[in-house]
Amino acid sequence: MNPRETIGIVGLGNMGYPIAQNLIKAGYAIAGYEIDQARWQPTDHLLYVNSLEALIERTSVLLLSLPDGHTVQSIIEQLLNGCANRSITVVDTSTIGAKASQAIEKLARSSKLRYLDSPVSGGVRGAVAGTLAVMCAGPKNLYNEVLPILECFSANQFLIGPQPGQAQTLKVLNNFLSATALAASCEALHFGQTQGLDLQKMCDVINVSTGMNTATLDKIPHQVVTNRFNAGFSNSLLLKDISLYLEGCDEAGITGDISRTVVQLWDNFVTSSPNDDATGLFRYTGKKSRRISDT
Q1: According to the model, what pLDDT value does residue 1 have?
Q2: Which residues form the 3-hydroxyisobutyrate dehydrogenase-like NAD-binding domain (predicted)?
Q3: What's the CA dihedral at 151, 152, 156, 159 to 10 degrees?
Q4: Rounded to an integer, what distance in angstroms lies between the CA atom of residue 42 and that of residue 178?
Q5: Is the distance from CB of 62 to CB of 91 less than 8 angstroms?
Q6: What CA–CA distance (Å, rounded) separates 8 from 28?
Q7: Domain locations in the chain?
């Protein structure tokens, strides 16, 4: 294989690493910057480097896959301070919220750094399979330029709007819906179990009925029924995402009655089991239900 060009990836964790592998399959070489060296998995066409400076010596196209807005903003500031005269394209697949994305765009405005707000959805399974959904916000010409890269690790690509932050808004509201569906499904399925119903059979029926959702289609059958509880997305990260959603609701004047309840549930779960897999909510709500029934 003759790689067409090198792409830099900052953050090669649960999402960044499989994204890198799909880019390699498509013919790209990858230069990776991952501060946690325990996560380093060197392969053909994946070279790990020890600094951002070493990364941008090899490429002018960077893809970010990082846990939060503070981390992303720190990386952007380092890029702006270290390579102010270089033209760099940043495709940010992280979920950081609209305000952080807008702040980054403002920072980059007077530089040669081009920033595309590009969060992804589909989880680790989607990243491995190359079937993620990518929602982008930024200049249309920049989106069109990087689209061939996005197509290597995603099945669906969307240009949401011209302003960074718009894609973040869609991503956090999507994750709120996902978190709510999982929470509601856990409660409903626990109720069914108290009435002697089989967990898998309930999902089978729900999935051809009006209650179908991503929890009953994917998370419960693949992670809960199998007792794996390893979807690859932590409860802490999901709490971060839905907290960003609630913050946005407050700023927009949306009452957020449902989101406050959902955020409180996830906050309690994270307090009880920090950094547990998100699908562990089923175990947490089951224990909570049993405590209530015993009183």
Answers
A1: 38
A2: 165-280
A3: -40
A4: 33
A5: yes
A6: 10
A7: 6-163, 169-294
Region 169-294: CATH code: 1.10.1040.10
Architecture of domain 6-163: 3-Layer(aba) Sandwich (3.40)
Give which of 151, 145, 158 is closest to 90, Cα–Cα: 145
Distance separating alpha carbons of residues 251 and 270, to the nearest angstrom: 25
The parts of the chain modelled with pLDDT lower than 70 are 1-4, 84, 290-295
pLDDT of 292: 54
C-alpha 245/C-alpha 25 separation (Å) is 35
Cβ-proximal residues to 65 (8 Å cutoff; 6+ apart), any chain:
9, 10, 11, 12, 13, 15, 16, 19, 93, 94
Q: Are 27 and 19 in contact (CB under 8 A)?
A: no
The two structure tokens encoding residue 37: 């060296």
Tell me the whole-structure pTM to 2 decimals.
0.93
